[in-house]
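Quick question, first post here. What does this chain look like in 3D?
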Amino acid sequence: MNQALKKILIKTKKQVFSEIIGNNSTKLKGEGYDFCELKEYEYGEDVKNIDWVVSAKMQKPYVKVFYSQKELNVNIVCLLNGSTYFGTDVFKQEIITQIASSLGFICIKQGNPFSSYIANENLEVCTKKSKQIFNVNFMADLLYNYNVIGKNINYEKITKELFKSIKEKSLIFLIGDFFDIEKLDLKLLCQKHEIITLIVRDKFEENPIELGNVSFIDPNNNKIFESILNKTSILEYEKKVLENDHKLYNHLQNCAVRFTKIYTNEDPIKKLIGVLR
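> Answer (accepted):
Ran it through. Tokens below.
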């Protein structure tokens, strides 16, 4: 394990175990302590959960519903393709590794088992279901050193394989930069599982500056092409990024998927705390 990866693991572990991070609020309802909602009493429900004050006011029996305190099955899915091999200060691949490691440590702190996957053209198992710190270190090592050059994301194939592979109702974290999302469809997957999407971007990708004549190498296919990065080409590019993100946000909202965007110059832990609350 190289020194850069050791620093990532030490930093994320220290942040997770020192920060006050409560249990994840999930869509799963059942016996627990965290209040979820009130609903009309139905035959067969536990009368101990009846809220007598509300029932008296409404002239109907109402029961309290709580979030389930059962063990969560967490799946960390890292979308590693060529475009993650980019960053003005820190590569997106490194940030994805940091986020995945943080999630792994959070699972261990809360006593939840986690599995991890690497996804691009195919879905590869990174680590099997575990509650051990060793698995976080092993996952981080695989993610950090994974060769993303020449890899593309096949969203259609990945979602189908995730649906088949993950049998139990789970909390799935999808981590990637989410460009070219025309074939992204989470409707079926989110009916079976709860999904949280973490979008990793670099500021330069969304707001590039004028550089004049440039030579680019596309890390998705290793092709070299010449271009002029002027005001006109930047405006056209920014328009395409906005269209991509508009489709992405609409799709996530329609599927009731929680999401947040994390830039390469931000602290991932702070963003994670916000989306997990």
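The chain has two domains: 3-19+71-276, 29-67.
The longest strand covers residues 29-40.
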